[in-house]
Amino acid sequence: MLLTLGNTRGFRTLAVGLLAGVAAIVLVVDTADARGRRRAAKSGGGYSPPYAAIVVDANSGQVLHAAEPDAIRHPASLTKIMTLYMLFERMEAGKIKADTPLKVSAHAAAQSPTKLGLKPGQTITADEAIRGLVTRSANDAAVVIAEAIAGDEDDFAKLMTRKARALGMSRTVYRNASGLPDSGQVTSARDQAILGRAIQERFPVYYRYFSISSFAFRGQTIRNHNRLLGSVQGVDGIKTGYVRASGFNLVSSMKRNNRHLVAVVLGGASAGARDARMRSLLEKHIAEASTRRTAPPIAEARDVDVPVAAAAPAATPTPATPRMMLASAGSVPVTPATAAAAAPAMPAKGAPVAAAKIDRPAPGKIHPAKAHAAADPIKPIAVKTIKVKLSGVQTASLTPPLAHLPVVPAQDDRSAARAAARILQAPTPARV
Question: pLDDT by residue (tens digit) across 234-251?
Answer without folding.
Answer: 999 999 999 999 999 999
